[in-house]
Every structure is written in structure tokens, then in C-alpha cells.
């Protein structure tokens, strides 16, 4: 008997995407021909004006509901033992980071967030005080970005905390910044500094205890770059964009795969975070592969002038988009190596 293949996040998403697109094509065909889809769905579909412009494969789904606006929808899990540990993370930080993940996806599309929906699955013995602190952290960030918590659901979890956040936003019609529009010759930029969040995880694992959130604020209270993303979209500076949730190596690979291009980045240009006390610069590996920085990675056409900072956030050019499909890292001597995506990936062993 052949053993089943282990799960791979990339393969799993690709399979779901293929199946969803196949089902969507069948639905579209039923609308055109008038032949009912299974279970009588055809009539309802023909009456529904919503168009799905971008589905699985980008930071948000893009739906056209109104003639002049496109809606953005994104959803993110926060799982105990995967994204946080109660003995390492204050409850306020867990709530804050839960919403920050969704807001960062909206920022990556150049969108404006509007509302959020929170679903919680909680163990029976979880103290009420922990939930209250979680909500304080989440709502503090929601108020900062004028986002309404509009609903959700609750359930009992057999083990561990699960929080699922859905964030709704919008962009002007046809103006969402996608991952799929990078072109050879475009320059590659990142906002802020990289590796600070991963450095906190490394420190906590090494010491098996909490660290001070103020010494590693990029991990405990990351700042979603909503205003920056909106301005990049308004000024037409970004040809493609993604938020750095899984790490530079992995997220740059997403842009290259969706755009059908390659990239070359210069190691000495990558802005590395300074963390801890006394502060120290993080190792290059953490800047390349560490996740949960929630900065923006974007490409800009060669003819566009990108300022050194926007909305008080520094922007750094780190490389260029190339022909081909591979990504290379070049050192100051011009010697390069192929960059393999080693950022965060679920199901990786």
C-alpha cells in the first residue's frame, strides 16, 4: 500500500484554487447557457450582480459589487501553538496581532479597511479576563483605523484557542494592487525594517520564556501599513504588492510566481531591524526568511520616482525584477546565489 503524500501548503492552495476555478467556470457556463447548475444554483447566480475579479492567490479577494468600488475580503487564522503561546504572548498582543494580519492584507492591495468579523473557538477553562484583554488589544487597533467590529461567531474548542478574523475593505474600481503585475525592469522596494518579529521568536525559544514586548515591538505590536499602501495605490507607484507575513524569500517568490518573472536582490541593501536591549541588528537570515513583519514589499516601474519615505515610513530599494523565474541574492562583491523560499509555510516538516 502506498503511503499518502504529506500535506504541503503550496500544493494544498494550488489544488483548492484549481477546484474553485473549475467550479467557477461551470457556474459561468450555466449563466451563459441558462442550464441550471447543480441543486438549482443557476437561477440565483444569474440574478447575482457580483463579479469576482481576483480570487484565490492574492492577499485579498476582489469583488465588484458597486459600479465605482471594488470590495476586498480577506480572512486569517490565529492559532494557539502556531501563531502565539499564552506563556509568551500577552493577551492584548494576541488580539492586536489577530486584526493586524487582516489589515495588512488590505494594505497590500492599496485598500481602505471598513469592517471586521471575528470568530472565536475557546477552551472551556479559559479565564474571562484573558478574553477581555484580547478584545482590548484588538479593539484598540480597530479604533486606530476606524474599523467596525461588525459580527462573528463563538464556539467551544476541545483544545487551544482559535481566532479567525475576516476584514472587509475597498478600492476604487479596477485600482487594487495585485501580486501579478510585476514586470522585468521594475525595481523592488520594502517598507520599514525586516527580521524584527522573527528575532523575538528566536529569543523566546532560546530562553523558553517571555521577553519584554517593548524590546521587540515589531513582533508583539506590528504596524499594518494601511496608509502607505493607500498612497502607493493613489500615486500609481506600485505595479505589484504583497505584505511580508511569511518572510521576504517566500513573499517575493509569490510575486514572481504570480507575475511570471524572476528577481535579483542585493543583500547589503536589505534593511535589518535592530531589536533587544542593548539593541543589535538581526542576522541576514532573519531578514530574508523571518515572517510576521507585516511590512509591504512592492515593485515600481523604472520610470516612477519612489521617495525615501511615505507616511513617515522609510522605503528601501533592494533589487530589481528580471526575466526568467529564479530569484538571486547578490553580495557586495557581485557574487550571487539562488534564493530558496524558506519563510513560513504551514505543513512543512
UniProtKB/TrEMBL annotation:
Pathway: Cofactor biosynthesis; thiamine diphosphate biosynthesis; thiamine diphosphate from thiamine phosphate: step 1/1. Keywords: ATP-binding, Kinase, Magnesium, Metal-binding, Nucleotide-binding, Thiamine biosynthesis, Transferase. Substrate binds at residues 83, 292, 344. The keyword Mitochondrion does not apply. Mg(2+) 4 binds at residues 59, 74, 105. Its EC number is 2.7.4.16. InterPro entries: PurM-like_C_dom, PurM-like_C_sf, PurM-like_N, PurM-like_N_sf, ThiL-like. Residues 23-49 are annotated as: Disordered. One of its GO terms (molecular function) is thiamine-phosphate kinase activity. Pfam families: AIRS (PF00586), AIRS_C (PF02769). It catalyses: thiamine phosphate + ATP = thiamine diphosphate + ADP. Catalyzes the ATP-dependent phosphorylation of thiamine-monophosphate (TMP) to form thiamine-pyrophosphate (TPP), the active form of vitamin B1. Belongs to the thiamine-monophosphate kinase family. This is Thiamine-monophosphate kinase. It comes from Candidatus Sulfotelmatobacter kueseliae. The gene is thiL.
Amino acid at each position: 500500500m502506498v503511503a499518502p503524500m504529506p500535506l504541503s501548503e503550496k500544493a494544498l492552495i494550488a489544488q483548492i484554487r484549481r477546484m474553485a476555478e473549475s467550479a467557477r467556470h461551470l457556474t459561468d457556463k450555466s449563466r451563459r447557457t441558462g442550464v441550471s447548475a447543480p441543486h438549482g444554483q443557476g437561477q440565483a447566480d444569474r440574478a447575482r450582480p457580483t463579479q469576482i475579479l481576483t480570487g484565490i492567490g492574492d492577499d485579498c479577494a476582489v469583488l465588484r459589487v458597486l459600479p465605482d468600488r471594488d470590495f476586498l475580503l480577506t480572512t486569517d487564522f490565529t492559532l494557539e501553538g502556531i501563531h502565539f503561546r499564552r506563556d509568551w504572548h500577552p493577551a492584548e498582543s494576541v488580539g492586536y496581532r489577530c486584526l493586524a494580519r487582516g489589515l495588512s492584507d488590505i494594505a497590500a492591495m492599496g485598500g481602505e479597511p471598513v469592517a471586521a468579523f471575528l470568530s472565536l473557538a475557546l477552551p472551556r477553562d479559559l479565564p474571562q479576563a484573558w478574553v477581555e484583554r484580547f478584545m482590548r488589544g484588538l479593539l484598540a487597533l480597530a479604533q486606530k483605523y476606524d474599523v467596525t467590529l461588525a459580527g462573528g461567531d463563538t464556539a467551544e474548542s476541545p483544545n487551544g484557542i482559535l481566532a479567525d478574523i475576516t476584514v472587509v475593505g475597498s478600492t476604487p474600481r479596477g485600482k487594487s494592487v495585485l501580486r501579478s503585475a510585476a514586470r522585468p525592469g521594475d525595481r523592488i522596494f520594502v517598507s520599514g525594517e525586516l527580521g524584527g518579529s522573527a528575532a523575538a521568536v528566536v529569543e523566546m525559544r532560546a530562553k523558553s520564556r517571555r521577553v519584554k514586548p517593548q524590546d521587540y515591538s515589531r513582533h508583539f505590536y506590528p504596524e499594518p501599513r494601511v496608509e502607505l499602501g493607500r498612497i502607493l495605490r493613489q500615486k500609481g507607484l506600485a505595479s505589484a504588492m504583497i505584505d511580508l507575513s511569511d518572510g521576504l524569500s517566500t513573499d517575493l517568490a509569490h510575486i514572481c510566481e504570480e507575475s511570471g518573472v524572476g528577481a535579483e536582490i542585493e543583500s547589503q541593501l536589505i534593511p535589518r531591524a535592530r531589536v533587544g536591549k542593548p539593541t543589535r541588528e538581526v542576522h541576514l537570515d532573519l531578514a530574508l526568511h523571518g515572517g510576521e513583519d507585516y511590512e509591504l514589499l512592492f515593485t515600481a516601474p523604472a520610470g516612477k520616482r519612489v521617495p525615501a519615505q511615505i507616511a513617515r515610513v522609510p522605503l528601501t530599494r533592494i533589487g530589481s525584477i528580471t526575466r526568467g523565474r529564479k530569484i538571486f541574492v547578490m553580495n557586495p562583491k557581485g557574487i550571487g546565489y539562488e534564493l530558496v523560499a524558506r519563510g513560513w509555510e504551514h505543513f512543512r516538516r
